[in-house]
């Protein structure tokens, strides 16, 4: 077991606990405690699951990280970045020529979801292609 995996487990647990605390305490300075707490819990649980999967694969003797995995991640990141730049440019142009009074929270949430879904989609697509 690598120290990186143990560190990710600890950080994931801390992030998830912060999310639970935000959701329970509902501080007044946070606009949306449920959404913020949920985001922290989700990120923490994701880190924990990824760490546990990595540890289990290493115990079986499977190579978790190699040059192929890094190359696939680079290609998926580049394609995701390209799509986000185009989407953000279109959004800026749309907001620049219209008089809509749009809240930032839904837009940022949507861009975050698009980022995560497009990266995961491209990662698995490139993984099958290579």
From TrEMBL:
Keyword Transmembrane among record annotations: yes
Q: Which of UniProt's keywords are assigned here?
A: Membrane, Transmembrane, Transmembrane helix
Taxonomically, which superkingdom? Archaea
A Pfam family of the record is DUF2178
Query: What stretches pass through the bilayer?
Result: 7-25, 31-50, 81-100, 106-126
InterPro entries the UniProt entry points to: DUF2178_TM (IPR019235)
Descriptive protein name: DUF2178 domain-containing protein
Q: Which organism is it from?
A: Methanohalophilus portucalensis
């Amino acid at each position: 077991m690598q120290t990186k995996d143990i560190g990710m487990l600890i950080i994931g647990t801390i992030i998830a606990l912060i999310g639970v605390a935000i959701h329970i305490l509902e501080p007044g300075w946070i606009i949306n405690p449920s959404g913020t707490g949920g985001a922290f819990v989700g990120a923490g649980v994701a880190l924990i699951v990824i760490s546990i999967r990595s540890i289990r694969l290493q115990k079986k003797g499977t190579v978790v990280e190699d040059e192929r995995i890094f190359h696939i991640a680079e290609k998926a990141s580049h394609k995701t970045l390209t799509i986000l730049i185009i989407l953000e440019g279109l959004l800026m142009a749309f907001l620049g020529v219209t008089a809509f009074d749009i809240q930032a929270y839904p837009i940022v949430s949507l861009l975050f979801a698009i980022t995560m879904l497009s990266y995961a989609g491209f990662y698995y697509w490139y993984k099958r292609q290579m």
